[in-house]
Amino acid sequence: xxxxxxxQWFDPEPTFKGLLFAQALRDLGHDVEVLTGFPNYPGxxxxxxxxxxxxxxxxxxxxxxxRVPLYPSHDGSALKRVFNYASFAxxxxxxxxxxxxxxxxxxxxxxxxxxxxxALVLGFLKRVPFIVDVQDLWPDTLKATGMLNNGxxxxxxxxxxxxxxxxxxxxxxxxxxxxxxxxxxxxSEKKVEIIFNWCNEEALINSEECAVKLPDNGNLNxxxxxxxxxxxxxxxxxxxxxxxxxxxxxxxxxxLGDGVSKSQAETSSIEKELSNVFFLPRVPMKxxxxxxxxxxxxxxxxxxxxxxxxxxxxRTQAYLAVGKPIVMGVMGDAANLIAESGSGVTCKPNCSGSxxxxxxxxxxxxxxxxxxxxxxxxxxxxxxxSLNKGVERFEKVFKEVV
Length: 402
What we know:
Layout: E1 2-6, H1 19-27, E2 31-37, E3 56-60, E4 63-68, H2 78-99, E5 105-110, H3 113-126, E6 130-134, H4 140-144, H5 151-167, E7 170-173, H6 176-184, E8 192-194, H7 201-205, E9 220-225, H8 234-247, E10 251-256, H9 262-271, E11 277-280, H10 285-294, E12 297-301, H11 315-322, E13 326-329, H12 333-341, E14 344-346, H13 352-363, H14 367-385, H15 387-401
Parallel strand pairs: 1-2, 1-5, 2-4, 5-6, 6-7, 7-8, 9-10, 9-12, 10-11, 12-13, 13-14
Antiparallel strand pairs: 3-4
């Protein structure tokens, strides 16, 4: 079977379904090609070694990559973001027609929606089915994040999404909540498949030594790694650290990464005179695994939003795979995974008291009890969420529609 992966983001850009996905499908005996743009995410600057041109063919580990031009931009300008999405949709459609041959099925990674529109046109012209992998529920996410607030435009996006869903052969979603939401929009239940995301297993397994170290003061280290933005609810985490310090619970709250909320969190921890809060700079993905493995407890936390209750934050899979006890500060599907796997405890999101209680719960357990939680998570990841399990499910979906 010849599979075309149509995605605006691909290696060397950070992406869930990139080269590892293509390699895994290839290793199952399929012919895989990729139609993507010139790498510029997340900064909006074209990566070193690349220059935007009309077309570039690249070979990565024997896999053909068709790179097409786009307008590189990922800043806060809605207009520039529209140009970024639309330019790739147009160029991938035109050059997809010209450069891709003898395709059996098209896989489309969403977001953005425009990628799926390109897949729809290519599928129609080449008379092949296309599958949409929905990672963000548009227009819900656009509204929730403040990226788009115009009611009329949101309505247009909603109608376009529903049109794509109707025309697609299958829709893959990352959680049960996503499936329920699509069914409530009129999508046939038989059309929607749940395939959980996996983590970057290669980066975790082959993690590099890191110059940045966790605190070594005799306390347990709870690590919160990744984006430090508004959605992550940092004020509630700082509040939990204050409660833990007042109670004399020997746990460090360690933030790893950057984001728009980091500066305010640093200021708040200084004002509260918290000696149990530490901020570490962002490190390369290949070094993150070293720090995750060195931590005693791992934290996932988001503010309480209806949309977050049906999603599973990407760091969840990495935390499970690395085999450490988890505090899950997200309601819904993500909390259900932790409960089902026995890999940690859950708490109310954006609630300092609940978070502090959950951290204390794990911190006061024995080393053996914490190890059992971590082992449970690692086993659960391997059995249900790993790259191999996910690719097997995708292969089955592809075969169903071809």
